[in-house]
Structures are given as structure tokens and as C-alpha cells.
């Protein structure tokens, strides 16, 4: 058996993409009702999360593919009503998000 004589291993970095982390942050903001009805413009989201607009576009594209938001050029990004209603339980309290 070979023993490792090098330094102790360091904690591994998370292997998730920056766009995935931005998506999670935006989804969490939607779930906690920080954003209601509409999302801020891409530029504002990029500033809030300290990422590029390209990263935000990728995150928004993923949310749109999952049916959480709808993006319309020149109109902005809206949170789909069925998504917000599906997440509310019988007592009006938000339920956990399956995403």
C-alpha cells in the first residue's frame, strides 16, 4: 500500500455551473415572494447576483424551460401564475418546491 505523503486534501469545490447557482437563487427569491408577478430586468439581476448577463440569460432560459417563468422581448419576464398557485397549500402557505 502506498501512503500519501502530500498535504491533506482540501475541500472540493462545488461542480455546479454558475448559471445553475443563479437559477437557484432566482427560484428561491420567487418562492420567498421577493419577486411577485415580474422579475427585474436581466441587468438588475446580474448586478444583484454579481454575475454576467450571459449567466442570467442561461438561468432564465432554464426557468422558462421548466415553466416557471415566461420571457417576452420588450415586455420582460413574468412569473407564471400556475407556478405560484401550485406552490400554495390548502391553507395558503407555500409548499416546498420540487425543482
Topology:
Elements: H1 18-31, H2 42-49, H3 53-65, E1 69-72, E2 76-79, H4 81-86
Antiparallel strand pairs: 1-2
Helix pairs in contact: 1-3, 2-3
Give a brief rundown of this model.
It is built from 4 helices and 2 strands, in the order αααββα.
Keywords:
99 residues, mainly alpha, Arc Repressor Mutant, subunit A, two-stranded antiparallel sheet, 4 helices, 2 strands, disordered C terminus
Note down, in words, how this protein is organized.
It is a single chain. By secondary structure, this protein is mainly α. The chain has a domain at 18-86: Arc Repressor Mutant, subunit A (Orthogonal Bundle), CATH 1.10.10.10. It is built from 4 helices and 2 strands; from the N terminus they run H-H-H-E-E-H. A hairpin with a 3-residue loop joins strand 1 and strand 2. Helix 1 crosses helix 3 (53-65) and helix 2 packs across helix 3 (53-65). Mean pLDDT is 79; it is low at 88-99.
> The CATH topology of the domain at 18-86, please?
Arc Repressor Mutant, subunit A
DSSP strand tally: 2
CATH architecture of the domain at 18-86: Orthogonal Bundle
Reported for the largest beta sheet, the result is: 2 strands, antiparallel
Termini, distance in Å?
44 Å
CATH superfamily of the domain at 18-86: Winged helix-like DNA-binding domain superfamily/Winged helix DNA-binding domain
Task: Count the DSSP helices.
Answer: 4
As a percent range, the share of strand residues is: 5-15%
Task: Write down the CATH class of the domain at 18-86.
Answer: Mainly Alpha
Q: Could you report the average pLDDT, rounded to the nearest whole number?
A: 79
Unreliable stretches (pLDDT < 50, length at least 5) are 88-99
The global form is: globular
Question: Secondary-structure element order, as H and E?
Answer: HHHEEH
| Overall radius of gyration | 18 Å
Class derived from helix and strand content: mainly alpha
- How is the largest sheet built, in terms of strand order? 1-2
Q: What is the helical fraction, as a range of percent?
A: 40-55%
Amino acid at each position: 500500500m502506498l501512503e500519501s505523503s502530500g498535504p491533506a486534501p482540501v475541500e472540493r469545490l462545488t461542480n455546479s455551473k454558475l448559471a445553475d447557482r443563479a437559477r437557484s437563487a432566482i427560484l428561491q427569491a420567487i418562492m420567498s415572494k421577493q419577486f411577485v408577478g415580474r422579475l427585474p430586468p436581466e441587468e438588475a439581476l446580474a448586478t444583484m447576483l454579481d454575475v454576467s448577463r450571459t449567466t442570467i440569460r442561461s438561468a432564465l432560459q432554464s426557468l422558462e424551460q421548466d415553466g416557471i417563468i415566461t420571457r417576452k422581448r420588450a415586455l420582460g419576464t413574468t412569473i407564471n401564475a400556475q407556478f405560484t398557485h401550485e406552490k400554495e397549500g390548502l391553507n395558503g402557505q407555500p409548499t416546498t418546491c420540487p425543482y
